[in-house]
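Reopening this ticket.

The earlier resolution said the output was attached, but the attachment link was broken on my side. Pasting everything inline this time so it's all in one place.
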Amino acid sequence: MPSSLFSSWLREPLIQFLLLALLMFALDSYVLGNRPDPRHIVIDDARLLEFIDIFEEGQGREPSADELNNMIVKWSQNEILYREALQMEMDQGDEMIRNRLVLKMRNVLFNRIIVDTPTEAELTDFFQFNRDRYDLPTAYDFEQFPLTATYTLPQAETLAQALNQGEPLPDELQPSLRHYRQRPASNLETMLGATASGTLLGNATNRWQVIEQDNRLRMVRITGIHPGQPAVLESVRNQVIRDWKQFRNDIQLADQTKSLADRYRIELALSPHLSARLNTAQTTPLDAVSSRVN
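Inline output:
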């Protein structure tokens, strides 16, 4: 009879609710009881040795007992303020704190990286694949000067034709003439624009050409060409080794970051308007998080 009475009680919704609440209360008490007390600050051997190392590094000697006590007091005060700030959620929304934590985490990952010296085959393959970093590119000497606002395009082209036929540069334009030595094609493109530099490099040397840049006319000509020279591995060996090690560092750092990213589920909750701006990208932001360090 008692057994059947007990069974009937267990079937009561109210009893089931009370038992579930009791179980949740017990579980919560257990979790809270095993959680470290945020107001319990422990200075252990490792912490004290850290204080001593910091003092010795800065002062060149061991700290006295009073100096060590003073370091403990200052660190404890800072730890109290830090924990109180966390309790007040002051770390939330503070980009400076966020960036410092990100930097510290990157340093943790970086310190796990181990890169050995490359083998000769690895070094040679890396050098050949990245040869454009080490080859000396073709360089150009060139001259240029801006025309005053009074010049029209036909007048500028007439001047270019006259100069190319051997006439001297007018005196009023002499002060504006600038000379550039051994500049790579990329430098010309930066200064003159892709279209103008491409046309200039396609023309014969010592031929003045009119270009329009920023709504202003200017005259440019190539005066000399220095052919590029392929690099020899032995002459750039040290640089190639440094680049190879940096490359291996980046690979290992990306792999570690990906292993961390695999633990997370990242969701893009964007409006249709902003989501459309990502549609033309070759990779999605989520792919980038999983594949490399941003």
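Reporter confirms the inline version is readable. Residues 93-135+234-294 form one domain. The longest strand covers residues 216-226.
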